[in-house]
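Aim 2 progress update. The chain analyzed this quarter is reproduced below.
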Amino acid sequence: MRGYNIWRPLMLIIVALLTRSLVTNLCILLGMQAGVASSIGTLGMVIAGLVMYNRMNIRRRK
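Predicted structure tokens:
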């Protein structure tokens, strides 16, 4: 456990949840139904999580 950084997974979770909330609210403001907006928000959350995970791994490899 010596080289483990607790902030990386926490930051990943926080960014994913904030992205989901932002995308869902934006879709609802643009007039989408709640179910469709939630699905798009979840898709945005997954994409944001993957992008952030890849960026964190690239920095760690260098």
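The CA atoms of residues 29 and 55 lie 30 Å apart. The mean pLDDT is 89. These observations will guide the mutagenesis experiments scheduled for the next reporting period.
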